Amino acid sequence: MKKIVVLLSGQGANLQALIDACQRGAIDGKIAAVISNRADAYGLIRAREADIPTALFERSNYSGNQAMDKAIGDFIAEIGADLIVLAGYMKILSQPFVERFAGRILNIHPSLLPKYKGLNTYQQAMQAGDSEHGTTVHFVTPELDSGAVILQARVPIFADDEVVDVEARVKEQELHIYPLVVQWFVSGRLHMEQDRAYLDGRLLPPSGYADE
Ligand code: GAR
Q1: Residue in 7, 14, 140 to alter for ligand 1 test, most ligand atoms within 8 A of Cβ
Q2: pLDDT in tens for each of the 212 residues of the chain?
Q3: Separation of CA 201 and ligand 1 centre (Å)
Q4: Is 93 assigned a ligand-binding role in the annotation?
Q5: How far apart are CA 191 and CA 104, in angstroms?
């Protein structure tokens, strides 16, 4: 069974969706460890409740970002993980780490990439007057939030929405699309080649797979 390692910094709602999907057999894989860069991440509690080993890597214990990422990478290599899933990991991974695990790192980002990379994507979309927002699962490459898009989910933004309304809509979608993409990867249907995403051997379009 394929081994998955999840990296997170916060709530872990996406982690929970992945745990649940593994438990009901919707993902043919095992979450071998959950790694956090924050001791207070609620995701760590979710992992422990599911009997998944956890590891904490705090920046203050390392001389630099690369040293920290080297330690995380060595830990992941030791486990022999097939896939690294970023689920709200709010720290930019250094280039050597990304290159070490090229094609084996997925991220979920709360915007319709390439729109709104980085932080505060909800505020950005609403301030721009957008009528829709969404979330993107993509392969991780060294440039932030720029790797090949695999799958997106769109949600509407209504005139009287607050940020929390749009965020709730987006997060609900994330819990559906991330387990699906993880299953595509662990079942061998999805891969990255020369920074492009392929599903069932077919090159995915720039906005990813769309089920019409
Ligand atoms: C998710 O909404 C995810 O899209 C976002 O963090 C949230 C984590 O929620 N990721 C990023 O912003 C990465 N740039 P969760 O901890 O409840 O899964």
Answers
A1: 14
A2: 999 999 999 999 999 999 999 999 999 999 999 999 999 999 999 999 999 999 999 999 999 999 999 999 999 999 999 999 999 999 999 999 999 999 999 999 999 999 999 999 999 999 999 999 999 999 999 999 999 999 999 999 999 999 999 999 999 999 999 999 999 999 999 999 999 999 999 999 999 998 54
A3: 29
A4: yes
A5: 8
Q: Which residues are catalytic?
A: 109
Rg over alpha carbons for the chain, rounded to the nearest Å, is 17
* Domains, the chain, with CATH or none: 1-101 (3.40.50.170), 107-211 (3.40.50.170)
Which residues form ligand 1's pocket by a CB distance below 6 Å? 8, 10-14, 43, 87-88, 108-110, 135, 171, 174
For tokens 């720029």, the residue is: 146
